[in-house]
């Protein structure tokens, strides 16, 4: 299934500890001042993932962040806004995140909609290259956050919310230019195809009967990758010669054959895991693709 970096995984892998107040459904905010890289090098497509939390970081050093349809190159230093709606990967091996905050959607519950801001909208700018002077201004905001976080002020989380918004408005008001966005004309389609294939393989890696495929159409995958469905269709056609629907159906059929031959699950359980609402729909799909029924295929 699709792997999502949760706050629990973030703390385990990047920080080495988990706060005691980390609870499902509760507001959470934390800030770190670091002299090491919070993000490990991400050299392969498997690093293309979503998070279930928001992250704003000030990074120093050259790096490259890949979204589904573009690559953003950071030359020196940048302010990064990452969120649950925009999956990405990147080579951050030379990056030092001097400041980083993480928070979940519940932290801003009843305090406004973050997705009204371009930094959190699909197609918006999520990475801002900074001048040395701008870095000092941003560091000042983060430093105020650090001081507020350890204060005894009863309304300190209101202040931290305001300071988070101040970071967002700093980026918007100064109209910072994003790092150079490069979409190489000769490999953009191949890169999208690679990201799609990785996502497809992760999504159809079914291990037990409680898992269920939720991305079944080209439009579903396009939304998950944060690109237009026509862009995805063109890229896959150029890279593979096949349509998106054909590739999805082929992968679904492959998983169905594997489960029918290698598992003891009932046909109804297999149908459910593959995202079919009714076993009859699965039977019709399988017979259309193979000319035989799932039951006959299993018994051969």
From TrEMBL:
Claim: Transcription is one of the keywords in the record: yes
UniProt-recorded Gene Ontology molecular function terms: DNA-binding transcription factor activity; sequence-specific DNA binding
Top-level division of the source organism's lineage: Bacteria
SUPFAM superfamilies listed in its UniProt record: Homeodomain-like
Domain HTH araC/xylS-type: from-to ranges: 190-300
SMART domains given in the database record: HTH_ARAC (SM00342)
One matching Pfam family: HTH_18
Keywords: DNA-binding, Transcription, Transcription regulation
PANTHER family: ARAC-FAMILY TRANSCRIPTIONAL REGULATOR, TRANSCRIPTIONAL REGULATORY PROTEIN
Record's protein name: Helix-turn-helix transcriptional regulator
């Amino acid at each position: 299934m699709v792997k999502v970096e949760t706050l629990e995984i973030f703390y385990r892998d990047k920080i080495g500890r988990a706060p005691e107040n980390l609870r499902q459904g509760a507001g959470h905010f934390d800030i770190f001042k670091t002299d090491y890289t919070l993000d490990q090098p991400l050299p392969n497509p498997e690093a293309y993932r979503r998070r279930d939390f928001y992250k704003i970081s000030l990074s120093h050093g050259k790096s490259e962040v890949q979204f589904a349809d573009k690559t953003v190159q950071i030359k020196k230093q940048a302010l990064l806004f990452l969120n649950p709606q925009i999956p990405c990967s990147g080579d951050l091996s030379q990056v030092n995140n001097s400041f980083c905050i993480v928070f979940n959607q519940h932290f801003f519950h009843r305090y406004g909609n973050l997705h009204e801001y371009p930094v959190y909208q699909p197609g918006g700018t999520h990475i801002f290259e900074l001048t040395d002077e701008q870095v000092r201004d941003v560091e000042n905001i983060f430093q105020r956050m650090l001081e507020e976080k350890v204060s005894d002020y009863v309304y300190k989380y209101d202040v931290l919310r305001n300071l988070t918004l101040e970071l967002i408005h700093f980026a918007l008001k100064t109209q910072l230019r994003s790092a150079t966005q490069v979409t190489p004309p000769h490999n953009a389609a191949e890169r999208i195809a690679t990201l799609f294939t990785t996502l497809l393989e992760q999504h159809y890696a079914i291990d037990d009967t409680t898992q269920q495929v939720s991305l079944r159409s080209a439009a579903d995958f396009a939304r998950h990758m944060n690109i237009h469905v026509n862009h995805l269709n063109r890229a896959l056609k150029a890279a593979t010669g096949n349509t998106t629907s054909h590739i999805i159906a082929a992968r679904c059929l492959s998983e169905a054959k594997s489960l029918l031959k290698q598992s003891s699950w009932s046909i109804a359980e297999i149908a459910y895991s593959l995202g079919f609402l009714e076993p009859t729909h699965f039977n019709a799909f399988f017979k259309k693709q193979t000319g035989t029924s799932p039951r006959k295929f299993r018994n051969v």
